[in-house]
Q: What sequence folds into this?
């Protein structure tokens, strides 16, 4: 029962911090444009990865695919 003396204030402080954080997001407008964010994540227009300029046949010769990350070793057919 003595542990409740510590756990209840900690729970109240963490709950208060969560409430303050939520109110801060409301005041700064983080929930203003929900539809724009929903469509932006599906669009390739805002892709932050640079375009790969190598032609497709160069990738095929090295065993690379578009799904292979640049740091991964090329796969060899078995």
A:
């Amino acid at each position: 029962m003595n542990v409740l003396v510590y756990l209840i204030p900690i729970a109240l402080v963490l709950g208060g911090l969560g409430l303050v954080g939520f109110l801060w997001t409301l005041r700064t407008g983080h929930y203003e444009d929900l539809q724009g964010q929903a469509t932006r994540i599906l669009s390739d227009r805002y892709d932050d990865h640079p375009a790969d300029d190598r032609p497709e046949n160069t990738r095929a010769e090295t065993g690379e695919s578009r799904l292979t990350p640049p740091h991964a070793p090329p796969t060899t057919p078995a």
Observations:
- Residues 3-42 form one domain.
- Residues 60 and 66 are 10 Å apart (CA to CA).
